[in-house]
User: Fold Non-homologous end joining protein Ku from Streptomyces vulcanius.
Amino acid sequence: MRSIWNGAISFGLVSIPIKLVNATESHSISFRQIHTEDGGRIRYRKVCELDDREVSSAEIGKGYEDADGSIIPITDEDLSHLPIPTAKTIEIVAFVPADRIDPLQMDAAYYLQAGGAPAAKPYTLLREALKRSNKVAIAKYALRGRERLGMLRVVGDAIAMHGLLWPDEVRAPEGVAPETDVTVRDKELDLADALMDTLGEVDLDDLHDQYREAMEELVAAKAAGEVPPEIPSAATGGKVLDLMAALESSVRAAKESRGEEPSEEEAEVSSLPQRRASRTAPKQTGGKKSTAESTQSAKKTTAAKKTTPQKSTAKKTTTDKATTNKTTAKKTTAKKATAKKTAAKKTAARKRTA
Assistant:
């Protein structure tokens, strides 16, 4: 690997010659700007505003733009006289536990390569000291015209250094978290834990850049004059109306994707009663109408109940009247029969007297 910086690690009175090499590399696909009409390259030229002519890199220096827009030239000689003791030295200033470093501060990563045979012994000493202490070294160094902060740690048999942002370069998370009061229930936490357990761990070596692979296929197809392959669009998630239902579905989907049977714990969590649909369904706009209809139905039912006994009473009254009429008719008939018998007896008596 090609070194980008040569210097030494200052470890108390011990000096370790090292070379700084990049620990990471970018695999991103880069593009060139072209003229869409004829495919010609679009290039940027460095032109002096005063002379209105293109200048070479040898003619270009540094300058600081002041608040009023004026440019203050800064030469390499000016920079060389700056009091930076770390210009060619990675100066270790402290050893701290690794968890003291906020991941937000971590920047680019480098490997520190021992600079020749004389550096092998002190390099190994520092590496083993870091291993045994379970700590990381905090150091200051200068790179690309500025002093930086770094963290040294052991990676395999090598020492790696992560560039760190200065503490005042990390923004506070103000206004980022939700401002509304939210209550998380225990059942929701149980489902979240079940989902985390179901997804489990992953070997980072198995992860790959699908976008880059698709881009390479696209470029290869166009270079061969073929039709670019169709890339399936990613499924978009629907609107989450019920967090519990979404968590339960996520747990089931994760288990199915792994071809695993749910454990007793997860089955118990999945069988938690879901919230009623009426809680998640949108409110109906005709709520008043439904209430009125219910009231009318109730009134009709009440009226029907009241009417039924009246009909029964009417029937009973009619029956009683008919019975009374029949009784009266029978009495009248009996009286008429008695009257006829009396009249017949009187007539017979008169005939005998005559």
The longest strand covers residues 146-155. Residues 272-319, 343-354 have pLDDT under 50 and may be disordered. DSSP finds eight helices and eleven strands in the chain. Residues 287-353 form the longest helix (67 residues).
